[in-house]
Amino acid sequence: MFPVICKIGPIDFPAYLVTVAIIAGTGIAVLFVMACLGRIKREVITTVLFWVLFLAVAAMILILTPITIYSYGLMLALAVVICTSMLVSEAGRKGIKADNILDLVFWTVVGGIVGARIFYILLNYQVFIDHPYEMIMIQKGGLAWQGGLIFGGMTGASLVKRRKLFLPKVLDLCAPYLALGQSIGRIGCFLNGCCYGKEVAGGVYFPVHDAYLHPTQLYLTAGLLMIFIVLKRYQESSTIPGLVFASYLILTSVLRFGVEFYRADHDIIFFGLSVFQFVSVGILLFAFGFAYVMLIKHSNPEDSL
Predict the structure, then answer these.
(1) What digits encode the pLDDT tens for the residues 64-106?
(2) Residue 33: what are its φ and ψ, rounded to 5°?
(3) Contact (CB, 8 A) for 40 and 93
(4) pLDDT tens readout for residues 9-25
């Protein structure tokens, strides 16, 4: 499809200063618009400053070397920016400091990407034995959601515990945006041509595979977007902590299990199922167990304080 969007750089120092000025100007414009809307708050200012500083520092790379913008990496970055901004805004309304959310997002994303890559490498180790340098080239695709969920969840839970926040409440807050982030990220998979489906008449033509295939990436994008909407509605009525997150695990596991039947990039191992379907079943069982524990614990109000 369109694995490479464009190539930028290298640039000289004056051009870097212009780039920083554009980034800063964009940040000021965002703050001005928010002020006009009467929504200027500390959380909004913190979020805008965070991204202005991050992009300004990241732009320094262009002085040293040209950068290739890959569709997969671009959509992954957009997912983080969009979901982080929405999450910080909602957290502020629920009394959670923006600093805690930004730290949580950063370490969860780092842990999630590392875990997703490790899991993907383990499942496709034969490819990486022949091409070991490909292990670090995540901009071209190759992240396994299940590994990201496990490693990212462990990293995020550790931070939440250190900050003495109520973990089920934070999980419920983040759950819809996990689904939204995945939905956006899958567009990157579609543009990159990875995570592809089986051949089918009337499917989408993928030049990289020279075939008409099930656009399984878009199936997941649409399904995860629906899950985001459902979870946002459920957030408004849920009174038992942890159940929104459990619902996220259940719905995403069922979705992935079903779409996997149309995928062509995974080997079948037992009973006509792929390894990702078995992992999805494991996550599904964990989700039901977690929901049961939350239900039992909530029956004693003193335990949920």
Answers:
(1) 777 777 788 888 889 988 998 899 888 888 888 888 888 888 8
(2) -65, -45
(3) no
(4) 688 888 888 989 999 99
Tell me the two tokens of residue 46: 């913190």
Say how far apart CA 279 and CA 214 lie, in whole Å.
Answer: 22
Q: How far apart are CA 146 and CA 80, in angstroms?
A: 18
Dmax over CA atoms of the chain, in Å, equals 63
Alpha helices, H only, the chain: 13-36, 42-58, 61-64, 71-93, 98-123, 125-130, 145-162, 167-192, 216-237, 243-259, 275-298
Strands 199-206 and 211-213, by their bridges, are antiparallel
Place of tokens 């120092």: 13
Domain ranges of the chain: 1-69
Kindly compute the dihedral angle of the four CA atoms of residues 166, 112, 75, 175, in this order, to the nearest 10 degrees.
Answer: -30
The tally of CA atoms less than 13 A away on the side-chain side of residue 300 is 5
Q: Which residues pair with 199 in a beta bridge?
A: 213
